[in-house]
Write a structure and sequence with these properties.
The complex is a heterodimer. Chain A has helices spanning about 45-50, 75-80, 95-110, 120-135, 150-160, 180-195, 205-210, 230-235, 235-245, and strands at about 5-15, 20-30, 35, 60-65, 65-70, 80-85, 165-170, 195-200, 215-220, 220-225. Chain A is of the alpha/beta class. By secondary structure, chain B is an all-alpha fold. Classes of the chains: A alpha/beta, B mainly alpha.
């Protein structure tokens, strides 16, 4: 087996007296499609925040591509190839839709290599990304002109723009229609085929089951199951967490 | 327009203004114009941190005073070089003194920039209103330090005796005219810097800090480093604006140098002009600055701050994004069918 791309060991996070996460171990191998599910408040987003550096975990370590991430600010982790979309879209409201994507291109992609150098190439890259999520018609609009659904797509496109090795999509599909969900799944599959490892956090089980090669389940800050999707959904602990006893 | 072309244009515009002012032959015009130009520099400097990054700085007066008191201290050393510049290092430095005003401007900028960087490091972990309070506190601390610093006159203040005029090739340039020209150049520099930032990678980074720091970090923007760059540039420009002030006014004391008008005006001017582009602080400073100068001679200097207050209230109600915001909205509305 190859070395894991992301390796989480014994991660814990507390907010005051509330234990949000405890003893989380998680491995993600390169090229994998992992689904992360769990009831509301089970700590999925907190885990993402700890992995991406938005929050800092008290105990445990996070390794990415063999390097320990603990204590690194979020932007350094993005530079290393770890990108995420936010559960509630957080667009840069004073920039146009295209310029929203220009930021990761300028600050992350250009840092790694000087391949994109001319402004025209940058423009083309922004448009190309927007085309992939179907927002190319609104490149010059401001995020405030977008619908909630379009903002989620923008959120995803911005994470894609950073050209990550690992993309964490935090509920990128909430509120989307069936056909739009299909579009996003197809898009994520395409990215995965290009070699990008993807963690999908989602409530829409149909999408998660179709997408994931492996499922991890969080309940009340603990990982209760991790394995093949078919096995996990029939796991008695998981069933109890979702349906009650 | 390329940045260097813009800078040239600004310098040319400055030269034009200077020639026009010389042609009018009124000393008062230079005297009043200096203050307006000083506020263009201060408002533009404030806007680099306050407008682009969204961090409201109430400490403009402190940075201005850093510049002013750097000049006072260096002037005193220069005037008594035999006394203060002793030892081998002193003898090496002695030929440099007394320093010319442009040299003082650059040195003051460096001092204020370094202090800005230090203050930024201490305060930039705070956000929103807490950052604003910290800058206010910084101004109070610095004022207390200056009051107790005997070398620059403490609370008694310090007199600076300047020459009446500067010998130029073929004619004599009055000192106020000289200071006016320096301030013009500084304004051109400040506006060029602001516009350069706006159009660069740095400008995008600053805008993301203003909009959403968490999302900025996730996009790979090193927010703390960028904010430190902003405080250093902003502080340096404010310090530069303060450097020629002792020569202009002749007598400086802490209460006046740390005066409320600097903090209030440098916030109000970009707000009224519009904070998202370099033109906003320029428009705001010219508008508000000249209104204040006119009010000073026609009504009384006491109405200055009242004027600022009334205009701020009016703009917050009718044009929250300032004059530039109104213009953008108007263009936007015209483009749409």
């Amino acid at each position: 087996m190859t070395a894991p791309l992301l390796e989480v060991r014994g991660l814990a996070k507390r907010f005051g007296g509330f234990v949000a996460l405890e003893g989380i171990d998680l491995d993600v191998t390169p090229g994998e499609r992992l689904g992360l599910i769990g009831p509301n408040g089970s700590g999925k987003s907190t885990l993402v925040n700890c992995v991406c550096g938005t929050l800092h975990n008290e105990t445990g370590t996070v390794r990415f591509a063999g390097e320990v991430l603990d204590g690194l600010p979020a932007h350094r982790r993005t530079h290393m190839g770890l990108a995420r979309s936010f559960q509630l879209p957080r667009p840069f409201t004073s920039l146009t839709v295209a310029d929203n994507l220009r930021v990761p291109l300028l600050y992350t992609v250009r840092r790694r290599s000087l391949l994109i150098s001319s402004p025209a190439e940058l423009d083309e890259r922004c448009l190309d990304l927007l085309r992939q999520v179907g927002l190319d018609g609104k490149a010059r609009r401001r995020p405030s002109d977008l619908t909630q659904v379009e903002m989620r797509k923008l959120e995803l496109a911005r994470a894609m723009a950073a050209e990550p090795k690992l993309l964490i999509a935090d509920e990128a599909m909430a509120g989307l229609s069936h056909s739009e969900i299909e579009d996003i799944i197809a898009l994520l599959m395409r990215l995965n085929a290009q070699g990008i490892t993807i963690i999908m956090i989602e409530h829409i089980m149909r999408a998660v089951m179709r997408f994931s090669q492996r499922l991890a389940v969080l309940v009340s800050g603990r990982k209760v199951a991790d394995g093949r999707p078919e096995d996990v959904v029939n796991n008695p602990d998981v069933v109890r967490a979702y349906l009650g006893q | 327009m390329r940045p260097w072309k813009f800078s040239l244009l600004m310098v040319a515009a400055g030269a034009g203004v200077f020639a026009l002012a010389l042609a009018i032959r009124s000393d008062y015009l230079f005297f009043a114009g200096y203050v307006v130009l000083q506020f263009i520099v201060l408002a533009t400097a404030w806007n680099i941190l306050g407008g682009y990054c969204g961090y409201v700085n109430f400490g403009t007066a402190a940075f201005f005073a850093i510049g002013t008191y750097t000049t006072v201290a260096l002037h005193k050393i220069g005037a008594n070089s035999g006394r203060y510049l002793s030892g081998t290092l002193g003898e090496l430095l002695q030929p440099l003194f007394p320093l010319s005003v442009p040299a003082l401007v650059i040195l003051s900028g460096a001092v204020a920039g370094v202090i800005g960087l230090g203050m930024g490091y201490l305060t930039l972990r705070l956000r929103g209103v807490f950052f604003a309070i910290a800058t206010l506190a910084m101004a109070v601390v610095l004022q207390t330090l200056v009051i107790n610093w005997e070398f620059v006159g403490g609370s008694r203040g310090a007199y600076i005796i300047r020459e009446e005029s500067l010998p130029m090739v073929g004619f004599k340039l009055g000192y106020v005219q000289y200071l006016f020209a320096i301030m013009l150049l500084l304004a051109a520099v400040a506006l060029s810097v602001a516009r350069l930032i706006e159009r660069s990678r740095l400008g995008y980074g600053f805008a993301t800090i203003r909009d959403d720091e968490m999302a900025a970090e996730a996009a790979g923007v090193p927010t703390l480093r960028l904010k430190l760059i902003a405080t250093a540039i902003s502080g340096a420009l404010m310090g530069m604006a303060g450097a020629p002030y002792p020569y202009y006014i002749g007598y400086v004391e802490p209460a006046g140098t740390f005066g409320l008008q600097y903090a209030v005006n440098s916030i109000a001017m970009p707000m009224i002009g519009g904070t998202t582009s370099w033109a906003g602080p320029l428009i705001g400073a010219i508008l508000l600055g000249s209104m204040q100068q006119i009010a000073t001679v026609t009504i009384s200097s006491a109405v200055n701050l009242l004027l600022v207050g009334v205009l701020l209230v009016v703009f917050v109600v009718i044009a929250p994004n300032g004059i530039m915001g109104l213009i953008f909205d108007w263009q936007h509305a015209r483009r749409k069918p």
